[in-house]
Amino acid sequence: MAEPSDNPPPFDGESVLTLTTTQIEEVPVVTAIGELDVMTAPRLLTAIRGVLDSGRGVVVVDLSGISFLSSAGLGVLVDAAETAGEAAAARRARLRLVVDDQRPVLLPLKITGLDHTLALYDTVADALADHPRPSD
């Protein structure tokens, strides 16, 4: 019989964040489900950069399935927006973030003021049609 270990197995972030990339109307959509924290945020950034590097004009990132957003996750969103070459209030943003009204995502964005600098949308359909969220 194996004895219990005081050392948990190494954590790789795979179990708490699921990422999928699909195409809708020829626009890449990266969907994130789970927790976006210091361990998982680099995976999202890698996925977004991979799509941006493919030369697509618009990338939609669906964060409506995120249950936790840390400061590391916020940093990734800012980094991804900078990578996409966004201006602070760009109307035709290349990086479009779907956040709906979820407190785990929207509240940190509002507290930090990023809701005024990132292109936020209520649904994937709104992001595809470029109908941003109304500013509060």
Name the descriptors:
136 residues, alpha/beta, Transcription Regulator spoIIAA, five-stranded mixed sheet, globular
Give the secondary structure arrangement, pairings included.
Elements: E1 17-24, E2 27-36, H1 41-53, E3 59-69, H2 71-83, E4 95-98, H3 103-112, E5 120-121, H4 124-129
Parallel strand pairs: 2-3, 3-4, 4-5
Antiparallel strand pairs: 1-2
Shape: globular
CATH class: Alpha Beta
> Helical element count?
4
Instruction: Output the structural class.
Output: alpha/beta
Rg, please? 16 Å
The second-level CATH architecture is 2-Layer Sandwich
Spans of at least 5 consecutive residues whose pLDDT stays below 50 are 86-91
Determine the N-to-C terminus distance. 59 Å
Strand order of the largest sheet: 1-2-3-4-5
Strand content: 25-35%
Secondary structure tally: strands: 5
Overall number of structural domains:
1
Average pLDDT taken over every residue = 84
CATH fold call:
Transcription Regulator spoIIAA
Residue share in helix: 25-40%
CATH superfamily: STAS domain
Question: What do you see in this structure?
Answer:
- With 136 residues, this protein is of the alpha/beta class.
- The protein has a single domain, classed as Transcription Regulator spoIIAA.
- The chain has helices at residues 41-53, 71-83, 103-112, 124-129; strands at 17-24, 27-36, 59-69, 95-98, 120-121.
- The chain has a 5-stranded mixed β-sheet.
